[in-house]
Amino acid sequence: MHPYSNLPPRAFWKKFVSDVAWRDLPLNDTPKFQLLRSDKVATAGSCFAQHIARYMKKVGMAPYIAEPAHPLMHQFGGEVESYQQFSARYGNIYTTRQCLELFQQAFGQRPMIEDFFEQDGRWYDLVRPSVVKAGFASLEEARADRAYHLGRVKHMFETADVFIFTLGLTECWLNTETGHTYPACPGTVKGEFDPEKHVFRNLTCTEVVADLEALVAALTEVNPALKIIFTVSPVPLVATRSERNVLVASSYSKSVLRAAVGEVEARHAQVAYFPSFEIISHAASFGQYLASDLREVTERGVSHVMGCFLSSFYPELAAAGSSSSTAAAPAASVASSSPAAAATPELAPPVECDELFNDVRA
Question: Which residues form the GSCFA domain (predicted)?
Fold first, then answer.
């Protein structure tokens, strides 16, 4: 007898991976906790995270929206899509630093970041450059909207039952005057690039771990019962500002994020990891979920990820979706078999990514 003698099949590559179809692998077979349909699930993160709300709606669950659009916007045709992407109107949050800064502003631990840009008589919020595409009529309106937004973010963190954060990038841009982080380099989506003011930063594993630990501690302090789920986006960088080529730079970024999440998740009972990254990007998948550009994830891949997520964390959905209770049931069947799925309209907007502007010539 030795330490490997009595381990279950999932501990061995041949039994768990080589001898099982990729679609049937129960890659998240041992979640730390499980969720209820009634739980308020707040979401944030990179553009890949926008799929969570869409698939929750498919199985008849309502994602937690702490910052809804005003009823008059629905009545008179205002822009409401940016209110539906995440639980609050913050747009894509690509880095751990950006997420931590959002929390700090919402709870008054740092002043509200005022980084607004005027163009053709309209004002744009460079901390949320893609959220209000048409801009604001005045600087005062832009400030007021951000202040209201931060109030709703505070409410979201205080009242959510679950917070899901999808980590996307390590590469980011910092403002040298205030030290705050941008979701996109100024001059790409909006604004003007100033080499003296805007500096590139590629976060290290140590820095990402520190950001995550600070975020977990802060969230737990304001909402002790909150469950936290971290996942890593499988989508590679669209462009890199590092000195490496984009493939190697992507490998660095995702490796750092995955390692950092693993380190932090192991320390906290209220923090779980979900393997979005592995389901799509592991070599054992043979790249079957990648589009022709080898970067974007196909709908089939998203379906596999979200199916696994739902059946893993929501056992009541898995039970309703299949008469079989086998652990390896590919949860994509959950979304398709739920009676609520057919009755629930598709309300989520198309996935939007600020990062795509890094590949647009000025």
Answer: 40-309
